[in-house]
Structure formats: structure tokens, C-alpha cells
Write a structure and sequence with these properties.
Length: 318
């Protein structure tokens, strides 16, 4: 597997700690993974590996076509469809609210995935699960993601980049699991679990919607998908741990009625195994920022003022 890596300057050691950061390459890039893998993933909505009929070629069971939906990015008086290069997005005006209904949800767990660039102060509510974007207290070039209306912390930060001169946090392939039965929600950035067992309030008026309240710099929504199953990996018991890891570790998927401490230990074991494994393959087209931090230039080459489509692969941090 070929990994297109980013070069880091000595002054940007903080970037090394951000293992989910994205490396960039332009049209005709040196691809991440095999050519066949890239070709398959390009067909998947938001690069989600199970949402393509060819998922079995990636070693994954595809989600049935009637079990997921790519939602349209409907416009209103405070939003409009735009594009940068070949990357379309919905531009939401500063300090305004955009919303739309989600897919009719089945009993049990449901999944909503989005890709969004959001300015500081933006709030995203998905079926009652709510996060807010704030400036990191550790480094002002990063944004901190916090759970809104809950005392549970989300220990995750993402870089801030300029999009049409507005500083925005890059939220790429964020998946939220809504479990109404348990009254909780969980969140992944790519396939890294960053929040779990967060309290889920009942949605207002019983309606499941997504609400994006843009900060003073606006927000760009680049895609939105709803799924009846985890779109990242097979998870028959909806506990946030891949079935294949459970089978490898326990001999079978964990019982749905397993004690909470057993599930907690299993989740920790999965995250440890995930951290020591090669990065997962994702392919996504999204708008380029106005320029890139010096540590995010492929092979150390400076990139400035580029406009087009950004092809993603995960960064190699050693």
C-alpha cells in the first residue's frame, strides 16, 4: 500500500499528534492504497466503504441499497449551492441556521454521516445529538469539538484552515450513531471513535432533523448520508466495535446484553489495535482551502492559493 505522506516542519510538532489529519494531493495524485481500491471508494457516498455494491471487494459486507440514503442539500434564503473545482458544497451564511429532515429512522440504532467545514461558534445538531465548534485552548490554529448540552467531554481537535478567507474547522467523514432505545449517541471521525454513550435528548416535536447553526464565518456542508447500519464497518450488535474484531478476540460477536464493563474493555482493546494498524482507506472529494499550513504540503512542496478538489488520504506520523 502506498501512502502519500505530508512533510512536517520542526516547529509543527503538534501536527504529529493529530493522527487523523489529512494529507493532500491534487488531480492525478499518487493514490493512497491500490488503484482498484481507490476506484471503488470513489463510487461510495462520502467515501464510506460499506455504501457501495462493490464493498465485498474491500473485504466488507455492503449495506443494502434501500438501507441508506444520500440526502439532498436543499437551499433556502440563507444558503446556496456552490462549487470549488469539481467539489460541490452548500454554503450556509454566517450566523444563520440551515436544517432539513433526516431519513425516517428504524427502531434501534441509526447512523448519520456528514462532511462539513464550520467556523468557530458553529453548532451541529443531528437528531438531538449536538456538538459545538470552539477555538482550542491549547493551540489557536485548531478547533475543539465539544458536546453541547452535556457534561461529557469530546476530546478531539481538528485544524482550522481558510476557506474564502474564513477560518473553518475541517470535519471530514463524521458519523453519528443515534440510539433512541438506549437514549445515547456516539461519534466517529473517520473510523476513530471519539465520543460514546452521550445522553440523547428527545428531538423537538418528535422530528429527527439536522440543524446547522453557522458561526460568524459561515459553514460549508459537503455531503450528508443516513444509514440503517454502521457505514464504516460491520457491527451487527451496534456497540461500536467491528464484528471481525469481536470474532477474532472473543470467538463471536459480543452478546447484546453483555455487562457495561466488558463492552468498555472491548472498546479499549479495539482502539489500541486500531492505533497500531495501518490507516484505513478513505477517498473523498471536498473543496480545497485557500492555502495549506506548511506542515501539510506534499513532499514539503509549498502550496498556496490553489482552487480545486482535494483528494484525501490519512497522514503518516512517523
Amino acid at each position: 500500500m502506498r501512502i502519500h505522506t505530508c512533510a512536517f516542519s520542526p516547529s509543527s510538532q503538534r501536527a504529529l499528534a493529530y493522527s487523523a489529519l489529512l494529507c493532500v494531493s491534487l488531480i492525478a495524485p499518487r493514490v493512497f492504497g491500490t488503484e482498484s481500491t481507490i476506484s471503488i471508494l470513489r463510487k461510495a457516498p462520502l467515501g464510506l466503504p460499506r455504501l457501495t455494491s462493490e464493498a465485498d471487494q474491500l473485504g466488507k459486507k455492503p449495506v443494502r441499497g434501500d438501507a441508506f440514503e444520500v440526502l439532498s442539500l436543499t437551499t433556502d434564503q440563507h444558503s446556496q449551492l456552490k462549487a470549488r473545482g469539481d467539489a460541490p458544497y452548500l454554503a450556509i451564511e454566517p450566523s444563520s441556521v440551515w436544517h432539513r429532515p433526516l431519513r425516517v429512522q428504524k427502531a434501534g440504532a441509526n447512523y448519520v454521516t456528514f462532511t462539513l467545514n464550520a467556523s468557530i461558534g458553529s453548532m451541529i445538531s443531528v437528531g438531538g445529538a449536538s456538538i459545538v465548534i470552539e477555538t482550542s485552548l491549547k493551540d489557536s490554529s485548531y478547533a475543539a469539538i465539544h458536546g453541547n448540552g452535556t457534561n461529557k467531554l469530546i476530546n478531539h481537535e481538528v485544524p482550522l484552515m481558510l476557506f474564502e478567507a474564513a477560518r473553518m474547522a475541517t470535519l471530514d467523514i463524521v458519523t453519528i450513531k443515534l440510539d433512541k432505545g438506549a437514549g445515547t449517541w456516539a461519534m466517529w471521525f473517520r473510523d476513530t471513535l471519539v465520543a460514546e454513550d452521550m445522553p440523547l435528548p428527545a428531538p423537538e416535536n418528535g422530528l429527527s432533523e439536522i440543524h446547522i447553526t453557522a458561526g460568524k464565518g459561515g459553514a460549508w456542508l459537503c455531503g450528508l448520508v443516513c444509514s440503517d447500519e454502521n457505514p464504516l464497518f460491520e457491527d451487527i450488535n451496534d456497540n461500536g466495535v467491528p464484528d471481525d474484531f469481536e470474532i477474532k478476540t472473543l470467538g463471536k460477536p459480543l452478546n447484546a446484553n453483555a455487562r457495561a464493563e466488558v463492552l468498555a474493555d472491548l472498546r479499549v482493546a479495539w482502539q489500541v489495535a486500531r492505533a497500531s494498524s495501518p490507516p484505513s482507506e478513505f477517498v473523498l472529494t471536498t473543496p480545497l482551502p485557500d492555502s495549506f499550513p506548511e506542515w501539510c504540503a506534499p513532499d514539503g512542496a509549498p502550496l498556496h492559493g490553489m482552487v480545486g478538489a482535494l483528494k484525501f488520504s490519512e497522514i503518516k506520523t512517523n
